[in-house]
Every structure is written in structure tokens, then in C-alpha cells.
Recover the amino acids of this structure.
């Protein structure tokens, strides 16, 4: 995946799946290969989606992904000092 919001290309490979009412977002490329690690879970119930996830910049990619992480969600620093964003809806 890539986006015009970042100079980093590619960002990584991702899968969003729906099994029954459960949503799952995962990074398919390994953590060492992906510039941006995406994870999250949620559900669909009565036509409404709930989701909680995280976007985490790879070490050394924080500056290049700072703007994208700010757009994705609430920007924070992880416990290992990496740049991350959390997102939730529903």
C-alpha cells in the first residue's frame, strides 16, 4: 500500500477481514519490512461498526510518517519511544 500523504513507498501490505461480525486489521508484511504497522479489531452489529486500532511507525520512519499518523488518529509515543496513532470509532 502507498499514499500521497507520505513519501515512504511502499508502506506495507495489510488485510482487513470480516468473519461473522468480527473485523480484523493486520499487517501482512513482517514488522521489520513494514514502514507502517497497522493492527486493530472491531465488530459489526445491527448495521453499526465499532473499531479500535493502532498505526505504528517503524524505527527510523517516524519523521516521514508523522503527518500520516496525525491524520489517521490521535498521535502518541509508544512505550519504546516509537511514533504511533490510536484510532477508534463506534
Amino acid at each position: 500500500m502507498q499514499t500521497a500523504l507520505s513519501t515512504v513507498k511502499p508502506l506495507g501490505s495489510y488485510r482487513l477481514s470480516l468473519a461473522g461480525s468480527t473485523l480484523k486489521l493486520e499487517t501482512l508484511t513482517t514488522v521489520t519490512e513494514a514502514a507502517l504497522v497497522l493492527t486493530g479489531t472491531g465488530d459489526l452489529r445491527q448495521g453499526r461498526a465499532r473499531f479500535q486500532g493502532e498505526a505504528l511507525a517503524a524505527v527510523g520512519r517516524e519523521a516521514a510518517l508523522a503527518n500520516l499518523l496525525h491524520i489517521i488518529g490521535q498521535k502518541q509515543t509508544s512505550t519504546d519511544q516509537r511514533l504511533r496513532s490510536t484510532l477508534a470509532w463506534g
